[in-house]
Amino acid sequence: MKKKNLLLFLLLFCLPKILFSIDIGIGLPSIVDKKVENLQKKVSKIIKPQEIEVIKIEILPSTYVVVSLNQQIKFEANGRDKDNNIVQITPQWVVEGGIGVINNYGVFTATSVGRGYVKALYDNLFVRSEVVVISTSSINNTPPVKPIVSGKTKMSVNSQELFSFYSEDTDGDKFYFVIDWGDGNISSTTYVSSSSTESLAVAHVYQSTGVYHIKAKAVDDKDNSSEWSEDFIVEVFQEKLLYKLNVSITPTNAGYVSVQPLKTEGYEYGEIVTITAYANPGFVFSKWDKNGTEILQNPIEIEIKEDTSISAIFISSGSAGQVCQLSVLVGPAGAGNVITNPQGTSFSLGTEVTFYAVANRGYKFTQWSGEIQGQQNPITLT
After folding, report:
1. Beta bridge mates, 181
2. DSSP secondary-structure letter at 318?
3. With the C-alpha atoms ordered 359, 365, 371, 372, is the resulting torsion angle positive or negative?
4. Residue 96 sits in which domain range?
């Protein structure tokens, strides 16, 4: 009997894996059970599954959350592995912004009115959800009315312009404006008193040409927002450099001049301007003085390349002998022009002058009036 027991013990010691499928009913039960237990522990350590790697985490609710003061809401967080499978995690919970507290189970309690975040952290990963805490009274609060935007519809690039924003709050709450300028910039104003009946003026500079859509919304001190305003459209252009043309008469009562085209705001570089001098009775045209240069021709065409000053110089007709002054007008203005042969507006008495009427595109010559009459073209006057 002892021999059998000894043999069985040796088999058990040398071949432990067999013991898992053998029901031992004879000899050394305590020794065998202990060996089996030790072997099972070793095997369990070897086949323990590896931990799953979490590559990102999610939070629920994940969108903008609004809660009232002292209200509770439960947040949950899950992990995702590389195959996007859900992995159960136990995150660390944090509240940012001083708006409340959160326990280890993700239950958030709102303790202060304001805006903040609930954040879940796991290893080196984190995710957060925005939370706005409002007072109980704001639940029945009416938001401000939809703002009205006004201002210039055209402005030059890199110039500062003022735009006006107006809204009202029927609850008497103060509010501020959030402005989307349409160029990628969004700004917020200071608070406006609900008792104010005036618009708030806000300056803005556009740094590129184009067409921009400005819109605004009003947000009261309980964080209730109005609708966005209607788009206010602004065209931003590149301002052209304009040159001034200053025309004077010497002496001042000696005559008058005609400038075509006449642009009080100025002329672009290279633009052609025609100027004609006409003498009053008792005077005759003598010359032009253009930036210090004398010019006898009349009318005169000048090319604008800089700020230009030109003066029509007249002299007394008695000092010039028997000279006749010729004045020619075209009606309507811009319909054409008149060419004289010989050219000029001042002629000695008895000079024969031929007039040629030349119509611009879209017009045709009809007749002469004044000192000469008729429909003949050209026509001669002595």
Report:
1. none
2. G
3. positive
4. 56-138
Please give the radius of gyration of the chain, using alpha carbons only, rounded to the nearest integer.
Answer: 48
**CA–CA distances in Å: residue 187 to residues 153, 190, 213, 224, 250:** 20, 10, 14, 17, 58
Do the Cβ atoms of 241 and 267 come closer than 8 Å? no
The answer to whether residue 51 is domain-embedded is no
How far, in Å, CA of 372 to CA of 349, rounded? 16
Residue 81 falls within a domain, yes or no?
Answer: yes
The count of domains in the chain is: 4
Report how far residue 348's alpha carbon sits from residue 337's, in angstroms, rounded to the nearest whole number: 23
| 363 and 303 both lie in a single domain | yes
Pull the structure tokens for residue 273.
């301007």
pLDDT in tens, 268-306: 878 899 999 999 998 888 889 887 788 888 889 988 888
pLDDT at 137: 56
Tell me whether residue 361 is in a domain. Answer: yes
Separation between Cα atoms, residue 315 and residue 325, nearest integer Å: 11
Same domain, 208 and 307: no
Which one-letter amino acid corresponds to residue 192? V
pLDDT at 263: 85
Sorting pLDDT into bands at 50, 70 and 90, what band is 357?
Answer: confident
Residue pointed to by tokens 């059970």: 33
- pLDDT of 12 > 50? The answer is no
Question: What residues have CB less than 8 Å from 190, skipping those under 6 apart?
Answer: 176
Tokens, residue 190? 């200071």
| Peptide bond between residue 91 and the one before it cis (omega within 30 degrees of 0) | no
CA dihedral 188, 192, 197, 201 (to 10 degrees): -40
Lowest mean pLDDT segment, chosen from 117-126, 162-171, 261-270: 261-270
- CATH at residue 122: 2.60.40.10
